[in-house]
Amino acid sequence: MEQPETIQPPNQNLGRDEAAARAAAVRAHSYDVALDLSRAADPAVAGYRSRTTVRFSAAAPGSSTFLDFIHGGVDRVVLNGTALEIGTAVVGSRILLEGLQPENTVEVDGTALYSSSGEGMHRFVDPADGETYLYTQYEPADARRVFANFEQPDLKAEFTFTVTAPAGWHVASNQAAARREEHGDGTATWAFAPTGHMSTYITAVLAGPYHYVADTWSRRLDDGGVLEVPLGASCRASLAPHFDAEAIFDVTKRGLDFFHDLFDFPYPWGKYDQAFVPEYNLGAMENPGLVTFTEHYVFTSRATDAQYEGRANTIMHEMAHMWFGDLVTMRWWDDLWLKESFADFMGTLAVDEATDWRTAWVTFANRRKAWAYVQDQLPTTHPIVADITDLEAARQNFDGITYAKGASVLKQLVAYVGREDFISAVRAYFRCHAYGNTTLRDFLDELERASGRDMEAWSAAWLQTAGVPVLSVELELDDDGVTVRAARLRQEGTDPVTGRRVLRPHVTRLGVFGVREGALVRTDSVDVEITGESADLPWLAGRPRPAVLLPNDGDLSYAKVRFDDHSLGVLLRHLDTLDEPLARATAWAALWNMVRDGALPAPEFLEAVRRMAASVREVGVLQMLLDQSVAALESYCAPAPRARERGLLADRLVELMRAADPGSDHQLAFARTLARLARGGGGEDAVAGLLDGSAPVPGLAVDEELRWALLQALAARGLAGRKRLDDELGSAPSAVAAVGHALAQASRPDAGVKRAAWDAALSGADADGRTLSNDALSATAEGFTVGDHALIDGHYVDYWPALAGIWSRMSIGQATRVVQGLFPVRQDVGPEGPDAHPVLLAADRWLGDSSDAPRALRRVVIEQRDQLARSLRGQAISLRGPAAAPRG
To answer: Who is most buried in 226, 266, 633, 707, counting CB within 10 A?
Structure first.
């Protein structure tokens, strides 16, 4: 659909101080919201009628306030029975309300716009059958794209939604429909029951010909009553044959049982629907009573056990939000961690203790923490409790710090105060603050009462500082070079925001391993508490030097691990023989951090992966390791060693794919990685043979997802042209195929193709002027970056001058996709050295000349620049070899 280009009004970016002032001035009571979506299937109709009645009180008679509404036109505003002058009352995205009474009613009647960016009311046309689907996504502040409201988390209210839509559609909201009325013209109106007291950003509407499955969960309460919760699960109709609703309900029921017992607070939101929707910007969103998920969790192609575990983790994460975030909500986005960190931790805990997966903490150590370590080493890192001055900053803080680092620190907190006291504090927190808003202090108060500990020092060290601690073991050996004379666990830590040294309290564990009959085995594991620079390890004195010392064994704390030289050498030779999943995952994660830090040359890491990947039994860890191997090759190897390493890795992936058990998850992981690697060269014959069937691999089905991955590899190498890609899409149209086609087409090594892809990504529209959806935009940008420098680099001269315009004319979500996706991050170290690369210098010039650019835009550029600088430093290390890399 083509939509008019709009410049974002400057008053969309609500400031924290403005929000605090409004919260002090007014109190919201209720909203009645009526949406007319009856013409949504007509692509020529850009918007829909949105009518809102808000009831609220004012602290001071005669005072003023404002509503938020990002709209396509406002027709009427009536305050306490008086119609306001539109030209005066409506200013950009705000509706000004003056002369307030103690109790007020305001009615706003206007037009809201459908979106293709995943923000507000997203509209999607299914390429498989032409049907139209709608859903809403608001966090942190996009409810105002659908209806007029006080868009901040601490102005909670009750919401009653009424939706008019085609009569044959499935329409849903946070509560069940109280009544439905057909109009005789092919449309119907659904009136939903009022919600509980909640924030604007977790309200939701879903509408379209969705496939819907129902079930029920029930639980006997302590008072003898029964809590019965209707369950629902929905997806697009064309996905119905692939929809495993029974498996989704099984995880859901286990989670409701688990959290009911753990939190000692019954599920508070009535029904529990879960909708899997297209082109979703997030993994999921915790709208109470109507949780929305990316439909990537509806597996239309073969899925590995790790993918099913990942879906279960997301289901549990969102369910934990029903209490952390929905029932008790942070007052402002500074305390976003009060919901996201807790949900990340609780989701993993629920998968570990309430489902049949026993690798949840292994996956967490290997995947979630890797995200946190990357984010926490960027120049833009921030404390878990962040300083969020406005909504743009809030949107960017849904990051690895708030989610994965926060969850890691909560895991450390449980070890620090004990699980029983931690859960007691959580239960008291819900009882005290149900349906309200809180800050950090509120939770710490409950924790102090439950544990008897003063939590101020812990909070200051872990929640209010930034940066990754580093744990290592320092050994002194006797003259024989074998016997340990003294040993201590050391920590290093600097807050990169303040530059001050930070030594945090850790309750952790040191693992001791030896080599027995060629295998690495645990010989000891000792709990250690370290609060300062070091903690002595007297029990190691007088013993022979262990083969491997593993700090943070059990992954109890949040810290990077640095191995001593001896331990590193043994791990690089014997890690495949270690038969303990969590210890093995922790060691692999530490090795990857060393590559990123320039402490382990990428070729050494790649050699270890090639030799030992077959021994990794957990497919989630394996897939992460394979992803890291491709990143090590493409980002941390200089061109000279890269060419050799690419061939070695491609050959090994083909070998592993053919040797794996037929039809196994491991076989599929090797095939998917081969397809990704082959975009840049290597393994083309194997890819072509899989695709045309001339060289099949027993047990490996070339399904839709793998087929498009293979086609993208051939397209990038010039072995699949436009006609073939178009024919593939036409023969089996689907959402997966449409995105796969966009990426493959933009990957083709043709100057005209690259120019078209560049122009489309930069403008957000295709050659015919049609707005690219969020998924299409990302695929086009990614496809553009695949290929030789000769085809790509000449376009970047237009990148820097375009940044300000991109940010002003696109929503922040779409603009971020473009600025990140087109940043010239794939560069090679040159004779000038890593620190003087022309792209780094260009970024520095732009940052120096653009001090007045929006902070959110500058943050994206700063982060991308840092990723490139780290890549170039790693490439320089790869040229100098092992002796140049500092160890220990």
So the answer is: 633
* 3-state SS string for 495-555: CCCCCCECCCCEEEEEEEEEEECCEEEEEEEEEEEECCCEEECHHHCCCECCCEEEECCCC
Q: Which residues pair with 97 in a beta bridge?
A: 65
Quote the longest CA-to-CA distance of the chain.
95
Q: Are 810 and 118 in contact (CB under 8 A)?
A: no
Tokens of 883: 């002796």
Sign of the C-alpha dihedral computed for residues 358, 361, 362 and 364 taken in this order: positive
509 is written with which tokens? 């564990």
CA distance 31 to 406: 34
At residue 880, the 3 state secondary structure works out as helix
Of 696, 704, 712, the closest CA to residue 734 belongs to 704
Q: Cβ neighbours of residue 632 under 8 Å, at least 6 residues apart?
A: 595, 602, 605, 606, 609
Q: What share of the chain is helix, strand, coil (3-state, %, to 5)?
A: 45, 20, 30
Indicate the burial class of 436 (C-beta count within 10 angstroms; 0-12, 13-18, 19 or more). Answer: middle
| Contact call for residues 401 and 375 (beta carbons, < 8 A) | yes
Q: Is residue 181 a contact partner of residue 276, using CB atoms and an 8 Å limit? A: no
Looking at residue 4, what is its pLDDT? 34
Q: Which residues contact 801 (CB under 8 A, 6 or more apart)?
A: none
- The residue assigned the tokens 């196994």 is 664
d(CA 760, CA 777): 8
Instruction: Copy the structure tokens of residue 347.
Output: 């989701």
Q: Write down the pLDDT at residue 882.
A: 56
* Distances 406 to 334, 373, 391, 442, 466 between C-alpha atoms, Å: 13, 11, 20, 17, 11
Instruction: Determine the Cα–Cα distance for residues 678 and 658; give it in Å rounded to an integer.
Output: 17
Give the per-residue SS3 of 175-238: CCEEEEEECCCCEEEEEECCCCCECHHHCCEEEECCEEEEEEEEEECCCCCEEEEEEEEEECHH
**Residue pair 75/109 in contact by the 8 Å Cβ criterion:** yes
Phi-psi region of 290 (alpha: psi -120 to 50; beta: other; left: phi over 0): beta
Query: What distance in Å separates the CA atoms of residue 871 and residue 298, rounded to the nearest whole number?
Result: 35
Q: What is the DSSP letter of 366?
A: I
Catalytic member of 279, 309, 318, 446: 318
pLDDT tens figures, 462-486: 999 999 999 999 999 999 999 999 9
- Tens-place pLDDT, residues 103-155: 999 999 999 999 999 999 999 999 999 999 999 999 999 999 999 999 999 99
Return the H-helix or E-strand segment holding 849. helix 838-849
Residues 6+ apart with CB under 8 A from 301: 703, 704, 705, 706, 736
Beta bridge partners of 215: 231
- The span from the CA of 32 to the CA of 47, in Å, is 19
Contact 887, 599 (CB under 8 A): yes
318 an active-site residue? yes
Any idea which residue has 């796969």 for tokens?
Answer: 740
Phi/psi at 791 (5° precision): -85, -25
Beta bridge pairs of residue 512: 524, 549
Alpha-carbon Rg for the chain, nearest whole angstrom, is 28
